[in-house]
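Input chain follows. Return structure tokens only.
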Amino acid sequence: MALLEISNLLKSFRAPDGAVHEVVRIPRFELEANTQFALAGPSGTGKTTFLHLIAGILAPDAGRITLAGHELTALGESARDRLRATSLGYIFQTFNLLQGYTALENVLLGMSFGPGADHARAEALLRRVGLGDRLHHHPRQLSTGQQQRVAVARALANQPKLVLADEPTGNLDSANAAEVLKLIRETCAENGASLLLVSHDRDVLASFERQASLAELNRAAQPKGTVV
């Protein structure tokens, strides 16, 4: 059984003029455990919507999403939240760190939605991403690259089976982007988490052996590069 299974997924949005725009229509997509996959495409083509559907942040109009053997689309809100907290990590392009909390506290708060706060693991993760001397710094005291590293540590805090990364290098310069991408891939591998990363950056995409565009997923029942 695949870690992530998607079938007949559909999501549309209504524009202010009343027109309905179909953003996601994916007949089939599967991702195995311990796999890293990149989803390509220009900004505004629905890649973030696709990740939000997988994460349960958005509800699909139709279709089925199964994560770690649990059908996400059939769960109630509380059960969906529990599954997301224990099985999924999300690295946002805009970091989504809580400004009033330190780096360590941001990671610990992420843990509170899962098995519970584990200071030793939180500190170890922050040291792994190179922030051992920034544990008690607030986001405003950290560089952009350092904030993204906190976001990486937080995403891995509950030992998720799947990590979603939405343009994780989009706000970084080229040097930091390469470093953070390497860090994400290495830490996911070390923690046994699959990675589904979306990007429009050619340099980022070139580093992935397995990739497809959202357009390919939308139009093909079995797009080239999909992991099955």
